[in-house]
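S.,

Sequence below, as promised.
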Amino acid sequence: MAADRRIVIENCSIATVDAHDTEYPSGYVVIAGNRIESLGAGRAPEGLENVDRRIDATGHLVTPGLVNTHHHYYQWITRGLATDHNLFNWLVALYPTWARIDEQMVYAAAQGSLAMMARGGVTTAMDHHYVFPAGSGDLSGAIIRAARETGVRFTLARGSMDRSEKDGGLPPDFAVETLEGALAATEATVKEHHDSSFDAMTRVAVAPCSPFSVSTELLREGAALARRLGVRLHTHGSETVEEEQFCKELFGMGPTDYFESTGWLGEDVWMAHCVHMNDSDIAAFARTKTGVAHCPSSNARLAAGIARVPDMLAAGVPVGLGVDGTASNESGELHTELRNALLINRLGAHREAALNARQALRLGTYGGAQVLGRAAETGSLEAGKLADLVLWKLDTLAHASIADPVTALVFGAAAPVTASFVNGRQIVENGRLLHVDEDLIARSTREQAQRLARIAGH
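The prediction came back faster than expected:
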């Protein structure tokens, strides 16, 4: 789209999620090229030139696009397995199967994962991929190709593991890389695919998997590599009580202190889960502006616990939302995490004061953009920012008696997505993806799941 072509959206409620939580009961948004040109209350300005399209969004709430901060796409083809396991037992049960994935499987799984998120309002996605069996093909390229075809903005967190069972880790010996191989492959992925421009559609982060699947050397050298290349760092942290015990037994300290000792706290770092954090841990994250990807459904599915999100937010820790892998969150959707984050956190110490609807929406939008290092570009609806936004239909039976649209979106049933835009380009219309074939993806992912099951012998 040329820079001077415009789309005008009118007659909608708007939740901007800007610094002042500005909202318009009835307003407009003007998109010019790939940017938000203007927005406000009432009708759009008269006399706009080169308007290609006008959208009457009566009955809709417009919000920033949702931002997913933690996921494992390959797990789409192992959904519904080990459903009654805690994290460590679940990993032990599934690693032997995951270690047999290949490029065709990963591409199909990425398509399924991305499609499910995008049709539910995600405009910025990420994938933490850390399983690279020898001879499995170009897995990173396959994931990036699927994201490009779907049309979402994307961060690939190029993961790695070098601590296998023989070293006291959980992955099978044949499922890990060497230290040197992991670092070299990660650097090559960054150099080939990372785009640092303002409107970049693809970025890459350095992402060793977890304290119990990577060596201290891989963590330290991975952090140094990321900072030399100018990219972000991502890993799992403080997910379970067992992980805390593992770190204390092996390293003589808890996960947060261990991460700090290896260079893994900082404003260029975000970690998934962070369920078992004490006051000192939260203070360290706040002091260093280390981000957190909160994954409430997965944490509940694996019985990991309830992250102290209200305390993190009060301390100034950047927090976003994550689906997590679809083998521990079989729905694969992020918009349902708005509701689950609010409800699950109200089971914690702060009870009904834990989170409200607007805080939950902020976690799923601006908070996620902060965590991915993209808050200057997306995550809120403001003039000059990228045109990543969603039109939620709230005038059906499901939300008809809820007067406040943000409350309807967060507390109510999952709202239909009438339209979703990324970079000013529409990717969803009436709940269906525009640029990929959902039915073909469904067949492909089913076939690849069956193929993997045959190879893995179950």
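The mean pLDDT is 96.

Coffee later?
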